[in-house]
Write a structure and sequence with these properties.
The complex is a heterodimer of chains A (about 140) and B (about 80).
Chain A: H1 3-32, H2 38-60, H3 63-74, H4 76-106, H5 110-137
Helix pairs in contact in A: 1-2, 4-5
Chain B: E1 2-3, H1 5-11, H2 16-23, H3 27-34, H4 42-52, H5 56-59, E2 60-61, H6 64-74
Antiparallel strand pairs in B: 1-2
Helix pairs in contact in B: 2-3
The chains are: A mainly alpha (about 140), B mainly alpha (about 80).
Chain lengths: ~140, ~80
């Protein structure tokens, strides 16, 4: 068990409290200002925060569970699978966004289509920038 | 790439879980290696060969046709 991983888990544990606080704040603001999306979003964040606190608490109080989590997170095959899944999701998102954007333009929903297109361009720029950086680094 | 992982593991009387724990990977990775669905990195290959006290070449080996093809290109 590395100290770094124990510290990482502690950080996640405390970050979960931040999530919980943000959720609670969003709920309160949603109610006070009658904002339509704030309360449901706040509820989701609150539940996520509580779930993570319970999960991380359970992990950190048991050495075996903590070690299993460390192994699972550093396992090279798992890292490969996560990388492949992210890459596939990114590629499919690009294709889907392009198709939806085209359909929206054809349906004269110009503003939504334009927003989606710009998001698509930004994603592609970020991809090429990241590629250039990694190519230089490795 | 083929390997003798399952053979050596059984010879040493070790479970997949024990081997995974010893080299710092999950049991699923050991299973995937044994079934040939995953190729180990050099780092993991070295750990496994150290565990079984064999060389990497004795543990992992490409198919005979691949070896021959690479050998011919080198000549």
């Amino acid at each position: 068990m590395t100290m770094d991983f124990r510290k990482k888990m502690k950080l996640r544990f405390y970050t979960a409290f931040v999530l919980l606080a943000l959720g609670a704040a969003a709920i309160v603001l949603g109610v006070v200002f009658d904002a339509e999306y704030a309360s449901p979003l706040g509820a989701v964040l609150l539940v996520m925060g509580v779930a993570r606190i319970v999960q991380y608490r359970r992990i950190m109080t048991n050495e075996d569970t903590l070690r299993k989590y460390e192994v699972a997170e550093t396992d090279e095959r798992n890292l490969m699978l996560w990388t492949k899944a992210r890459a596939a999701a990114f590629s499919l998102t690009i294709v889907l966004a392009a198709l939806v954007s085209t359909v929206l333009y054809l349906l004269h929903r110009d503003e939504i289509a334009r927003t989606l297109s710009f998001t698509l361009y930004a994603m592609l720029i970020l991809y090429y920038a990241a590629y250039a950086i990694y190519k230089k680094k490795y | 790439m083929s390997n003798r992982l399952r053979e050596l593991r059984k010879q040493h009387g070790v479970t997949q879980d024990e081997l995974a724990s010893a080299v710092g990977v999950t049991r699923q990775t050991i299973l995937a290696l044994e079934n040939g669905r995953y190729d180990a990195s050099l780092r993991l290959a070295r750990k496994l060969s150290c565990y079984f006290c064999v060389t990497i070449e004795e543990l992992f080996f490409p198919e005979e046709e691949q070896t021959e093809e690479i050998r011919q290109k080198g000549e």
